[in-house]
Amino acid sequence: MNDTTASRIHWPNTHFLQSVANAREFPDTGLPQVAVAGHSNVGKSSLMNALFGRNGLVKTSKNPGCTRLLNLFAVDDRMLVVDLPGYGYARASKSEQNRWISMIDGYLTGADLKLVLVLLDIRHGPKDSDMQLIEWLNEAGIRWVPVATKADKLSGNGRSRRLKEMTDAMGGLLKPLPTSSAKGLGIDNLRALLQQELFDA
Ligand SMILES: Nc1nc2c(ncn2[C@@H]2O[C@H](COP(=O)(O)OP(=O)(O)OP(=O)(O)O)[C@@H](O)[C@H]2O)c(=O)[nH]1
Ligand SMILES: [Mg+2]
After folding, report:
1. The total number of structural domains that make up the chain
2. Which of 34, 93, 116, 129 shows a CA-CA span of 20 to 30 A to 187?
3. 97 lines ligand 1 (CB under 6 A)
């Protein structure tokens, strides 16, 4: 798909569907599902706003631990995108961290997922917890793609070098797609990727 085609993909009818505290409460929508996973504060909720072209639809914060429930968004009544709480938020209490992990784990285990976007901060990822998630997804046979967030924080050679290092750290097969929600970078490409993975395959 070329850039012009990619920039033509829009999802005007995105709406918040529901928040779920427990994977068992998950509604049966019959829509193909994409989950957005990654460390706390990596930029999951911001990326969803950029993807939907709707600032403020998904709640974001500069403080880690903002998203605490599974938040479901229906896109054009064709796809369900699930914003997950971030993992690895060190300042949350142990019991809260455990609750989040079991919520995410319960969801990933039970959901009929088409794809997981694994978000990695271009400056820091992948961390051990990211690698654990990736290994788990591989073992479960769930398709995933790495997405590098906050690409505006690095430029030129620094950005290319980090992307190469991240690719190598994840086994050399998948190169993260660089994105910046702040600058709108890579968002068209991400839309095109979702379109391809979910509807054109
Ligand atoms: N510079 C820059 N900052 C970003 C970008 N994306 C997100 N941020 C900032 O990163 C912080 C965290 O963003 P969120 O989208 O709330 O992160 P999250 O991964 O949903 O966090 P949790 O819900 O706590 O897991 C906010 O201050 C955002 O403004 C980006 O592309 N560039
Ligand atoms: Mg969030």
Report:
1. 1
2. 129
3. no
The pairing of beta strand 70-75 with beta strand 79-83: antiparallel
Distance 48 CA to ligand 1 centre (A): 10
Q: What range defines the domain where residue 125 resides?
A: 3-200
Give distance in angstroms: CA of 121 to centre of ligand 2.
14
Ligand 2 centre to CA of 61 (Å) is 7
pLDDT tens across 12-53, in order?
789 999 999 887 888 989 999 999 999 999 999 999 999 998
pLDDT in tens, 73-89: 999 889 999 998 888 87
Distance CA 140, CA 33 (A): 16
175-191 pLDDT, tens per residue? 999 999 999 999 999 99
CATH number at residue 175: 3.40.50.300
